[in-house]
Amino acid sequence: MDGRKKFRKLKDASPAEILRSHQRDDNFINQLREKVIDILQLLVRRKGLLPLIHSDIPYKLIYFFFTSGLGNQTLGEEYTGIVQANLKAHKVPTLFARMLAVILECFGERVLLKLLKRLELSVNHPDSQLTPAAVTFLNSFISKMYTMLPVLIIVHKGLFYTFGRYYSLGKRIAGVDYAKVYGHRPTDTISWGLRLLGVATFAQCVLKMWQSSSKENHTDKYVRADEKHSKLECRLCLERVVTTTTPCGHLFCWPCLTDWLNSKPQCPLCREHVVPSRIVHVMNL
Predict the structure, then answer these.
(1) Which positions ≥6 away from 236 have C-beta within 8 Å?
(2) What is the pLDDT of residue 2?
(3) Which candidate, 24, 46, 45, 26, places its Cα nearest to that of 34?
(4) pLDDT digit string, tens, across residues 53-72
């Protein structure tokens, strides 16, 4: 009971502190990944293992297992003086909630994309019993889901910048937030700067949705991996012709891909780690 009363007196962690914590964790995970890749490339020559060792997911799982999974602070949390907390229940999150948040952050988007891809293949299968009208409707729905998924992620990021709660969708679903336990708090000017960034993020989302709605007359707005079209559309803006490919083989236009990688060094579709210097300008599409 005394511990619970003490927990109620803790202040919410500020968004600036949460951002610093995750940046420090990401830096450590990237350093760990680079070291392991250097070692494995010297010892293992099997190409089939390259996608796995280049992805940051295994390193995230290992890192968060030995920190959050064992009830410890991450390096970023220790650096900023914050801890994971269920602020609504005024208690420390359960192990299940902490692990659920990690799993959703690592696999949530990827699983959803794979489910959409399977649904797409099932709808367009030659043996499908669906009517042409149903096929058209479902293809339109899947296309909108492909379009809205990155927008939803950006909207949630804008909510975090504005209100400072729940860094990711995975943490929001699991109910895992942060509380301040020690150290100096940042000034309010940083919070106002983040709120301004949130407003700009919402404006970006509105613009993207407006651009997408202007092309609703197209029933097929995305590119299938096994099809070759004379004009390929970027899957992010759905307007420009694709000119750039990631190392994992997905195509986008140069402005969209570079903007995406500047904020998150991952492929927008498969979430494989992408070094910005490794994207390639493709000719003769």
Answers:
(1) 150, 252, 253, 256, 257, 260, 268
(2) 42
(3) 26
(4) 667 788 888 999 999 888 88
